[in-house]
Amino acid sequence: MPEIKVTVNGVEHEAECESRLLLVHFLRDVARATSVHVGCVVGRCGACTVLWDGKPVKSCMAFAVQARGADIQTVEGLSALPTFQQLQEAFCAKDAVECGYCTSGMLVSAFGLLGRNPRPTDAEIKEAISGNLCRCTGYVNIVDAVKSAAQTSAASISSR
Amino acid sequence: MGGPLPMVESRRDVDPQQVPQVGVATSRIETRRFVRGAGTYVDDMQLDGMVHAVFVRSPIAHARIVRVDCTAARKLPGVFAVFSGDDLSDAMRRGRGTGSALVADLETDYLARSKAVHCGQAVAVAVAETPYLAQDAADLVEIDFEPLPTITDPEAAMREDSPRVFEQLPSGNVVQELHFSTRDLEETFAAADLVVRERLRSHRFAACPLEPNVALAQYDARHAGLTVWVATAGVHGVRRTIANALGLGEGSVRVVAPDVGGSFGAKNGTYPEVVVVAALSRRLGRPVKWLETRVEHLAAAAHGRDQIHDVEIAVTSDGRILGLRDRIVADLGAASSVDNSVSSAVLYMTGAYDIKSYQVDAYGVATNKSRHGSLRGIGKAEAALTIERLIDIVARQLGQDPAEMRLRNLVPETSFPYRTATGAVLDSGRYTECLRQVLDTAHYTELREQQARAREAGALRGIGISFVIEPTSAARRRVGGGYGACRIRMEPSGRVCVFPSLGQQGQGHVTTITQIVCDVLRVTADQVDVFESDTSTSPFGFGTGSSRSSVTLMPAVHVASNQLREKLIRIASHQFEADPVDIVVEGGQLRVAGTARPSISFQRVAEIAYNDIDQLPPGVEPALEVTGYFTNPNISYERDELGRHNEFAAYPYEAVVAVVEVDRATGSVSILSYFSVHDCGRVLNPTIVRTQHLGCIAQGIGGAMYEELNYDEDGLLINSTFMDYLMPTVNEIPELTLGHLETPTPFTPLGAKGAGETGTLSPPAALGNAIEDALSPLGVKLRKTPYTADRLRRLIRAAEGETSGVTEVGAWRHA
């Protein structure tokens, strides 16, 4: 079995794993980043979304070996960033969370969006999370939360 | 490696200045944990020595199991054990069918032994060091099946000569039969100006929470005790089933649900796989975890809806509904137990309307599809769809506006509490006002004018209305649901620990409970800890479902909080030598009103109650631990001489106006706007209620337009993953305009009716009405769900004279 090394939230994790081990399982079981959730394993629900070199990627759609050399970030690591915290605050304020299972993926997709597009339109927000399923909230509050976070961020930039 | 984490919400983020109150929008306590990625779902748990189970599932819908050969599977490295149903026959007693409406008791094996009765049924299990190796082993299990004739048509299944799903059942495939009639049917139908007959079908789909089913069982041989962590909505029911199956007392089985990623009914009851996992842990002496894949979930987790209604409605020429006659055939799949789908459809066919004559003959039929179970709105959604579509169909025939026809027939406000033909007691409502409010908000008259102009321009635009009631909080004998319970303990420090009888899977119970406790005890939220879903500590409960938390649990929390408050007052007033009436409770302190005397803290009262018990007033017992109950109100357990009874306690409702446009070429539907006015009685937390309602609407749209479980003639489930089972994404949610009314139920102290299901009922009804309205210039009739583009396109083409050889648009066909 190959030695697989993946850098997760800045820490290198190494384990002897089967080469067919999916990245999502490496993250959850080896790196113990359990914020990354498994919902469908066919890349449809987005509960497994992580940042891969800054881009939102569905981690069930990659093998762990493919992430060698990549910088993988999950909610556990992103929570240290003030810009991510703004998004988390917005999710709390807008009641964008119910059972919490889609939340990590939603946050990562939204954070990926705001990183490349700090002033997204509603349509752009929806497109960014169109690969993330939520069964509980009906999405309305999630879109509001992302919008609110973008506005907060814009306000804090313009006030400097 | 980590063991189970304590289920206490982090309090450090809760605003210490805030005293949450009932009825005030309060942000959820648990959100903070989830946005940090710190939720603990069963699959997050790892225990020392844990192994993984993967089930072998029948690829055939109906077959005798002739031979199961696990030899090759067992030889794989890393594989711990592989078992057939026969191998585990001494590890578990057989399961007994549940549901008081069952025609006869049915015993079944948790792991199939002699027969497979649906595609996806678990027939063997492999246990290995990793789930990947367990799947490899499962793939190597060789099973010889002797195929049997497949039963997929519930009406055909009712025939005498039909093959039987359960051979031991004398009634053939009819597992449930219910009949009801008022005494005046013949005269009523004879007196009608018009009788309309229609056949309306709801299709099969699933609740599909984002977290699949998952269980982790740990048997400790030293104590002969079992702990099972499971994503369930009802820990006590699971405990009972496992205890019975394994021959253990309930005291030896602890069932815990940590964070659960949604349920919507799918996690009510006990899945056979969970029982097997528990048995495996005892057999193997290791913790055993099972996480189902989405393919398994779609194939083997409980399905919902799927009823045929052959219905007749008798009306006067001015649109007054005189009577209703319905024959229901419900496809319950390979059900060894029955749920509420048939009984609730039977009870609520008359909907929100004053219809005095009613007859129903209902049959729950077993077929070789996956088992049927609770799906948000179970039974009530099927009834609502039928009556709401029927009203629009009749209104069109009479040349009446469907809004006018509803206004003519809605139960008037002065009639509440209103007893329906079946004996249901609708608790309270302002139905007419609600409908008028949504029509106003939608500017209904203008919508019709816009529609006329759009039609002139060639657009297929439609407007649909629905008015649905959503009976909540069911209770009946044998099944339960009779009450909610809550234990509250004030600790020696003055902090409060709360133990409710029901748990949450996203409904925000912890927050609502905290609001109630804080509101009564006048403490801040950071002083309250809620522990739920653990059979060791939770008072006995019936599982979260039927939207019963607002109706039975929250009042029980209220009762217990007040009991504790009164005890605090009694103890303090004794210290003060003051009248209890003069004691004020605020900020964790008790003081005598209108004096400058120093207050006594909760902590001091606790010290007296626990330690300095000589200071207690006479007749007051030590400690500060109370259990409050609230009995499910407005329930009749027995039928009266006319066969009537009331099975549900409270009746929230919703009026909807939906505007759609159908693309003539593709059949796809754009929902241009969706207006809702929702009344769930007293709103305990407006934020939570609104979000629940939005989620209901989204799930309802999914069930109306996109989600379907299709079986072919061989009983093979065609939609097996999220690639072909289409859950609504953010893009499927239209612009929503929400309004509300608050008409409390008179039957509970808090007045709340439950908000967990109502919004799910309207989309199939309102959108069906809107789409048929849109296609009415073509003469298209819509009698089945879902309203997929594919089906609508075929209907449009058929109506326009371009037949494609498919006249009956029903089951999915390969292109």
Give the termini distance of chain A in whole angstroms: 53 Å
**Physical arrangement of strands within the biggest beta sheet of chain B:** 3-7-1-14-11-12-13
Mean pLDDT of chain B: 94
What's the story with the biggest beta sheet of chain B? Answer: 7 strands, mixed
Order of helices and strands of chain A: EEHEEEHHHHH
Biggest pleated sheet of chain A: 5 strands, mixed
How much of the residues of chain A is beta strand, in percent?
5-15%
Topology, number of strands of chain A: 5
State the helix count of chain A: 6
Low-confidence stretches of chain B: 1-12, 805-815
Indicate the percent of residues in helices of chain B: 25-40%
Total E-strand runs of chain B: 32
Short structural description:
The complex is a heterodimer of chains A (160) and B (815). Chain A is of the alpha+beta class and 160 residues long. Chain A has helices at 23-30, 75-78, 82-93, 103-116, 122-128, 140-158; strands at 3-8, 11-16, 49-52, 55-58, 71-73.
Describe this structure in words.
The complex is a heterodimer of chains A (160) and B (815). The model of chain A has no long low-confidence stretch (mean pLDDT 95). Chain A contains 6 helices and 5 strands. Chain A is α+β, with helices and mostly antiparallel strands and 160 residues long. A 5-stranded mixed beta sheet of chain A has the order 2-1-5-3-4, sandwiched between helices. Chain A is globular, with a radius of gyration of 16 Å. The longest helix of chain A has 19 residues, at 140-158. The relative contact order of chain A is 0.15. Chain B is α+β, with helices and mostly antiparallel strands and 815 residues long. Chain B is built from 19 helices and 32 strands. In chain B, strand 11 (214-220) and strand 12 form a beta hairpin. Chain B is globular. The two termini of chain B are 50 Å apart. At the A-B interface, helix 3, helix 4 and helix 6 of A face helix 1 and helix 17 of B.
